[in-house]
Model the fold of this input.
Amino acid sequence: MVYYGILEKEPDTLWGVWFPDVPGCVTAGETADEATEKAISALREHLEGTEPPYASEAEALMVDPDVIEARGRGGILIRIPYLPNEAATVRVNVTLERGTLAAIDAAASARGMTRSAFLANAALEKVRASV
Done:
């Protein structure tokens, strides 16, 4: 699921992100990239243990009065993936080329990680980078 956030900055302040569909969920960072990255965690933490609210489409938000006002101040509509923190692990079956698996195992070992932890971490990095 993807939510839209508003990334904005006023002079002499941090970059901020807020979510029109998730009242009260806000975060900030020194740079636009840092604020965007923190928005992923803020959304996860804010929605933990709750039923996630409806995620509006961009077209619907473009006519929302608060979004129109923010855009008038220079705010930017950004996509933020909602990555729920589900503590339960799930076993999956993945097919990989033998050389790729060996490289994954070597990289995981060098970092003191299990194969599963390494793959999960790598996948989450890719998801976050797609923001």
Notes: The chain has two domains: 2-81, 98-129. The first helix runs from residue 32 to 47.
